[in-house]
From TrEMBL:
Keyword annotations: ATP-binding, Cell membrane, Ion transport, Iron, Iron transport, Membrane, Nucleotide-binding, Transport
Protein name per its UniProtKB record: Fe(3+) ions import ATP-binding protein FbpC 2
KW ATP-binding (keyword) present: yes
Gene label: fbpC2
A single MF term (Gene Ontology): ABC-type ferric iron transporter activity
Length: 328
């Protein structure tokens, strides 16, 4: 459906690359998330796909049609891509239905199509309201309906949930995922929040310094991250340095790098590798307690535990099956 080959983009004539030699393919009807730390190239990638930037090298095909190469650049409005942005971008002076009709004014059956997409997002009864008469979540559903109305080949959602509070966010992301799946459109959404990506994406693409470092199903990314960077995007991760390996008496392969996820750290429990430690500071986080710990060999660690009553002296450990190994 979307095929990208050797895509590169620099903004300073090749001195530094915002995107470097990125290649991947996306299948029809799936939802993909692009994840990466700030500056990793997420926006650049979607701007290139959308036709808002031209690449230095590489090609982009949508539905087997070349839309971008060094020689060819199909205009953004001719790529048949729908957009949903963080800030809804609805026209404040137009009612909901009019907001949707605006983008499909040339369509023969536009009234019928507007009705369909308003039903799809469950807002038919509010069609005569103005955007300011809706909640943030409802406005985002209108934005989605408007983007879906022209039947786009591809839907791009750029940080669509970041304006919403945590409760609404979780609710809306499930709702939006359901609507997208029901509509059958292929969707790419960009997010900082790996929880959003894990919750709704069939596959996740991870960018680091402009490079695509892993493309995988959510469960695989979590259990088999390709690097410490990928692992740490999906939760607190402690790198098992030589000093920590010696504290836990767990010598690991020297040509690899190792880490353990915070949730696999056990406090006062039996484990394959255990050491004694002193708790220097406890911070109550609501669902758990953050501990600053000094191991008996002098190493410091910060971990979060579900335990609420922690003595000053503890044992801390982990099991060998939970050690993540990377060739780095
Ligand atoms: N118009 C531009 N001119 C010069 N450099 C740019 C431009 N746009 C992006 N960059 C640089 O390209 C790199 C990738 O930026 P990009 O905006 O694609 O990252 P991002 O992953 O979307 O970041 P964020 O999550 O903060 O939005 C960064 O180093 C950025 O400074």
């Amino acid at each position: 459906m979307l095929k990208i080959e050797s895509l590169s983009k620099s903004y300073d004539k090749g001195k530094s690359f915002a995107l470097r030699d990125v290649s991947f393919q996306l299948g029809e009807g799936d939802v993909f998330a692009i994840v990466g730390e700030s500056g990793s190239g997420k926006t650049t990638l979607i701007r290139l796909i959308a036709g808002l930037e031209t690449p230095d090298t590489g090609t982009i095909e949508i539905n087997e049609k070349l839309v971008s190469s060094i020689k060819k650049n199909v205009a953004a409005e001719k790529r048949n891509i729908g957009f949903v942005f963080q800030e809804y971008a609805l026209f404040p002076h137009l009612k909901l239905e009019e907001n949707i009709l605006y983008g499909i004014s040339k369509l023969k059956n536009k009234k019928q199509r507007a009705k369909e997409v308003l039903e799809l997002v469950g807002l038919s009864e509010m069609k005569d309201r103005y955007p300011h008469q809706l909640s943030g979540g409802q406005q985002q559903r209108v934005a989605l309906a408007r983007a879906l109305a022209p039947n786009p080949s591809l839907l791009i959602l750029d940080e669509p949930f970041s304006n919403l509070d945590a409760m609404l966010r979780a609710q809306l992301r499930n709702e939006i995922f359901r609507i997208i799946k029901q509509s059958g459109v292929t969707a790419i959404f960009v997010t900082h929040d790996t929880q959003d990506a894990l919750a709704v994406a069939d596959e996740i693409l991870i960018l680091q310094n402009g490079k695509l470092v892993q493309k995988d199903a959510a469960a695989n990314l979590y259990t088999k991250p390709s690097s410490v960077y990928v692992a740490s995007l999906f939760g607190n991760t402690i790198q098992l340095s030589k000093e920590l390996q010696s504290a836990f008496e767990c010598p690991l392969k020297t040509d690899c790098c190792h880490a353990i996820r915070n949730e696999n750290i056990a406090i006062n429990d039996e484990c394959d590798y255990v050491t004694n430690a002193t708790v220097l500071k406890k911070t109550f986080l609501g669902s758990g307690t953050q501990l600053l710990i000094k191991l008996d060999n002098g190493e410091h660690l910060t971990v979060v535990t579900k335990h609420t009553h922690i003595d000053e002296r503890i044992t801390i450990g982990f099991n060998s099956k939970d050690v993540l190994e990377f060739k780095e």
